[in-house]
Amino acid sequence: MTDSTEATETFAPPPEFAAAANVKEDAYERGAADFEGFWAEQSRDLVDWNEDFTEVLDWSNPPFAKWFADGKLNVAYNCLDRHVLAGNGDRVAINFEGEPGDSRSLTYAELLAEVSKAANMLTELGVEAGDRVAIYLPMIPEAVISMLACARLGAAHSVVFGGFSADALRSRIIDAEARVVITADGSYRRGKETSLKPAVDEALSHGDTPVESVLVVRRTGQDVDMTEGRDQWWHDTVDNASPEHEAEFFDAENPLFILYTSGTTGKPKGILHTSGGYLTQVLYTMKAVFDAKPETDVFWCTADVGWVTGHSYVAYGPLAAGMTQVIYEGTPDTPDQGRWWEIVEKNKVTTLYAAPTAIRTFMKWGEDIPAKYDLTSLRLLGSVGEPINPEAWRWYHRVIGGGRCPIVDTWWQTETGSHMIAPLPGVLATKPGSAQRPIPGISVDVVDETGEHPAGPEGGLLVIRQPWPSMLRGIWKDPERFKETYWSRFEDTYFAGDGARRDEDGDIWFLGRVDDVMNVSGHRLSTAEIESALVAHPSVAEAAVVGAADDTSGQAVIAFVIVVDGVENSPEVAEELRQHVGKEIGPIAKPKRVHIVSELPKTRSGKIMRRLLKDVAENRAVGDSTTLADSSVMELIEASVAKS
Ligand code: WTA
């Protein structure tokens, strides 16, 4: 498709939607005229500050920003107490849908009581402001309760996705120096019980972590080993704690959470977020991008709390905005492929926020499945995690949104904390496949390799020009890596790692990562991390991993390995290596295919040319291989791939 057809096919906001929209066109101008003033205004309007701030942005020591630094607030108070005090204690905060069909509702007053109990219990376990707590839980209300309890105490949480392995959990616990782990016996997925507690036991079994206590939520009732003196049941402790807890107020820059994400090296980065700026931008994007109407909306963000989307748009955004939200524990095909639509119908969901990979899966399952449900409650749809291809966008718009719901394609990252580029749904005519424009108060550019010129029509690199309130404050315990990763390529400019281009209307289209980070089903994985898991296996001598285009998951992990002498090239070995990665990192990192090859393409300086392997994995003619030390290698590789 050419630019001009892309540019002409737009969907104007429905007139009633535009008329009632929270944020109108003038916000763009105000954000551009004085971004600090703009964010100060949003912050005072949307956040309850216990002590107002006098300084907006401190950028005296770039790239280390401080926002609203002398203000004081409590993030959990903003998510709970203020709604109860305003008389909305009876509004439902969370409608939980368990996978087996059980459900549970918590009003704001009830959620406040649960969070207060958990905060009291954590205090009893010695957790204080400034400490870290690891959370390894499924998608159940206790995940959000635990996060808010930490926030209430001024302790930072480090949520580790329940699909990650014991090893991944252990390294994150050690890096963050967590004193307490909150977990569950297990959960329900795809109609089966999965277990979590054994991974915690394994993670702690080396005796090299600072963990003193483990709190265990009973979800499935399966048998678990409890270690005397270390492990306690949530229902024996938290449930009996006092439901009263007075929130203390902390500095705006008090750490709120650490969330580990994949980078270009094998070691995940602990992305640090703080309180006042983060909450400001999360709340502003709830208002501006999701057009949040707390009295009438029912919000459903389908992301797991193990990812940043689940932090900003499950745990913090909807609750700080005082909305009713849905939390679903399980998979979209349990008990059948209509599960999501049944949940939308039952809960009268108005705002659905999901990943393109899910949309593409539903497309494959067929439109007659959602057609069986009443989806007329929906008024706004969101997309996140990877570029949404125009075809999936149109299907989402037509089949799920009934042609009447604007779609906000939201570009952001773990590092940015909240939306950065997304259409304002009541203002812009949306365009399938494009995330369009930075939100008000944010300044981005698409530049060429030198960073000095705007990129041409073929695209270039996305950069962020000015600090923003919810920006990461650093990489935990690694300021040098923070500078090096994001701020060294161009001066005083944040380098996002994404390729992008602008069309003739100035709208931004994302082209995928420009580094060795893959995006599989909207989840970030690093090639280096999977490669180091592979070479840790005794059969593997060398490994190279690439992300190859995949119809459903966006990208798929494809591994090329050289095995050690004596190990044969067999499907069994390849399968064993797939399983090994699943065990080391987690099932999401399992390669779709493992090719056993005799050589890897290397430059004379020994650097693996992944670009060429990607050509093989994507079934394309192999590109320019003149810089290879041995140019015949690609033929050997293609021959062994053809055989496997
Ligand atoms: C990609 C997820 C295109 C991008 C919130 C980014 C997107 C990485 C979009 C961050 C989008 C996310 N369009 N690409 N709407 N949203 N990405 O940290 O490559 O898990 O750098 O944060 O996902 O992934 P992360």
From TrEMBL:
The modification N6-acetyllysine is found at K607. Its cofactor is Mg(2+). PROSITE patterns: AMP_BINDING. It catalyses: acetate + ATP + CoA = acetyl-CoA + AMP + diphosphate. Keywords: Acetylation, ATP-binding, Ligase, Magnesium, Metal-binding, Nucleotide-binding. Residues 85-476 form the AMP-dependent synthetase/ligase domain. It is an enzyme of class 6 (ligase). Mg(2+) binds at V535, H537, V540. ATP binds at G385, E386, P387, D409, T410, W411, W412, Q413, T414, D498, R513, R524. Residues 25-79 form the Acetyl-coenzyme A synthetase N-terminal domain. Catalyzes the conversion of acetate into acetyl-CoA (AcCoA), an essential intermediate at the junction of anabolic and catabolic pathways. AcsA undergoes a two-step reaction. In the first half reaction, AcsA combines acetate with ATP to form acetyl-adenylate (AcAMP) intermediate. In the second half reaction, it can then transfer the acetyl group from AcAMP to the sulfhydryl group of CoA, forming the product AcCoA. Belongs to the ATP-dependent AMP-binding enzyme family. This is Acetyl-coenzyme A synthetase. It comes from Brevibacterium ammoniilyticum. The gene is acs.
